[in-house]
Amino acid sequence: MDFDDVVSSWNCRSLQFHHGSDTYSPDFVAERPYDVLVIDAVGQRRPPPWVSEAVTREGFTYRTMSRGDVDPIRLKNCKDLLQCSGGEVSLGIG
User: Fold this and answer.
1) What DSSP string runs through 8-35?
2) Which residues contact 86 (CB under 8 A, 6 or more apart)?
3) What's the CA gap between 26 and 84, in Å, rounded?
4) pLDDT digits (tens, 9 = 90+) for 81-94
5) Which end of the chain is more exposed for a tag (fewer CB within 10 A), N or C?
6) How far apart are CA 18 and CA 25, in angstroms?
């Protein structure tokens, strides 16, 4: 999300949604100019079936994402850039 031009800010597990006595915190919340996107990264762990409806009821957009949803070249580039984020990087050759 750091490299998505339409995401103005994002954070992890900052919202909680309730369904009866169950509480759930999705993985990410991303603010965009036109909405707030609530994202769950899915793998072996799946979000509860009621989450999508609870998120929508609060006025947010909900999406699940898996590794296959991200262009592998872009994912590799982002990983490489994040490794350099703590230091000064020269983009020149030589």
Assistant:
1) -EEEES---EEETTEEE--SEEEEETTE
2) none
3) 28
4) 667 666 555 555 54
5) C
6) 9
At 62, is the secondary structure helix, strand, or coil?
strand
The enclosing H or E element of 40 equals: strand 35-41
Q: What are phi and psi of 9, to 5 degrees?
A: -160, 160
Map residue 37 onto helix, strand or coil: strand
Structure tokens at 4: 């998505």
Q: Pick from 84, 62, 61, 89: which is nearest to 2 by CA?
A: 84
Local structure of residue 4 (DSSP, 8 states): -
CA 71 to chain centre: 15
Q: What is the pLDDT of residues 20-63, one digit of tens each?
A: 999 999 988 999 999 999 999 888 788 999 999 999 999 999 99
Give me 67's structure tokens. 């590794």
